[in-house]
Amino acid sequence: MRTVILIGAIMIILVLGKIYVFPKSESDKSGGASGGKGGGKSAGTSAIPVNVYVVGMETVDNQIFASGTVLPNEEVNLMSEISGRLVKLNIQEGAYITKGQLIAKINDRELKAQLQKVNYNQELARKIELRQQKLLKVEAINLEEYDVTSNNIRVLDAEKEVIESQLEKTEIRAPFSGRIGLKNISEGAYLAPGTPIATIVQSNPIKIDFTVPEKYASDIRAGGQLTFNLDGDVFNYSAKVIALDPKVDESLRTLRIRATAANPAGKFVPGMFVKVKANLAANHKAVMIPTEAIVPVLKGKKVFVVKNGKAEEVMVTTGLRTDKKIQVLDGLQPGDSLITSGIMALKPSSAVKVK
Fold this sequence. Notes:
By secondary structure, this protein is an alpha+beta fold. It has helices at about 1-20, 25-45, 110-135, 145-170; strands spanning about 50, 50-55, 55-60, 65-80, 85-90, 95, 100-105, 170-175, 180, 190, 195-215, 225-230, 235-245, 255-260, 275-280, 285-290, 295, 300-305, 310-320, 325-330, 335-340, 350-355.
């Protein structure tokens, strides 16, 4: 019995050795290698499955976005035109003032005294002129004497006008309605010409300045409408384009544009940052393709199209971009079969198969 068991065990070991231990014959190896090569060659000639997008024309709402800055409608630094001591400063910082309101007053006692002196001289000169008119009629004086007196009156009138002009400069008044800023001096200070006193800002309406690339210069016109919003504010506000800079910035190749918007509640403060959106004329013949079809390269951008069952490389020029598509300005024609998948595995003239 033990002999039978021993013989059976030996047979099992020989079978297992044949299967797992001893290598295949040379003919088997040769056949396997040959089969492997044949399989590789077959795989190399197989077509790559791809998705295709047929290029066509679409209508695109042409919009541009820009960063803008809020500017006051009017702003001026109040300064003194003459020298003198400040005797009155009528400023409540941050308060609203009206046009013509007195802001500051400079000491004018000396000028008033000069004006009074001129008034006395004018009164005397007119009396002398009246007497000389009577004497001239009876030829008691010659015409030359009368002309001197008459000219003296005109000189005094001119002197009076100069003094009155100087007196006006002793009063600094608001040139327009607005909000007064922080004062730079205090009452009792001595002012020299050009000394800043305070700033007046008119912020209703407001102005918005922003820039756009020069290629959009012909698409924006004065009188056009646009929208803007504050950073972090979901509401859109409307504005109107009032002016375009007559020249393009040579260094940045941008055009500066100015718009105006109502600000009755004072929500927009000069100096704020705003996001501007301008609607341009809609393009009814735009070639739009999926953004995933674009391949950035050193010389620009390229795409792959299907022609005669093979992938062909095409360089393109792009334009506007949306959330899913991008405009192609040059390189593609309506009807082209654009490859949108498996792009990284493609090479020029690769065989492809449309899924």
